Target: Oxidoreductase
Amino acid sequence: MTDRLKGKTALILGAGCVSDGWGNGNATAVAFAREGANIVSVDIDEDAAARTADLVRKEGGSAIHVKADVADFEEVDQAVQLAVETYGRVDILHNNAGANAKGGPVETSEEDWDRVMQVNAKGAFLGCKAVIPVMKRQGGGSIIHISSIASVSWTGHPFIAYHASKAALNHMTHVIAVQHAADNIRCNCISPGLIDSPRIYGTILSFYDGDVERMRRERSQSVPLKRMGDVWDIANAAVFFASDESKYVTGVVMPVDGGITCAIPH
Model:
């Protein structure tokens, strides 16, 4: 540990992983803990939330886990209150919970549209709604949203609900950053590019006829750096935004994408 987050408490919504591997949520939890943060691991899948908390404790960190649906304010607020009861404060809110549904406006069902919006946009909104009063009372904090390059560009496949929900996160970041700057609450957003995480094998692989090597090869070749990123690239960016190293940074939507948004025709 280098103690960049020593004494801070991080509430991570969507802290679990869809598999036993490393995803953005559990990697960020461990990265925060390695820098000294206490972790509140929140996920709709209680087993996944518990696995993340266990990973933190195995590295010598302090963690609790909570089962909560990010689209349910009462459950999110209870998670926030448990964090305060356990650790006394919430310094970092990391909005990582995400959902996706394949299809454009014709193919996407209303149910899928609503589900993706509830998790990706409403979930982040409710996290902020519950945490900001706590941060105001304690004198500040850092809010981090996980968006996507899909929020600003076509990415090769139709996921209209996902694209729209992530675009909403970008502007939510701007509004919260400005409104709560006087409260010493910073709000920033990470925009991942093509990341080799467990989630893509459930959402993207079908576009490549189930050919894993083809998917990896073609995704890597489309990136200027000629490789996909990994979940630690996202976790490391989150550590920066959570730490005092970014104390004068707010309202930023930062791509972590190997340069791909620079290369996409607009």
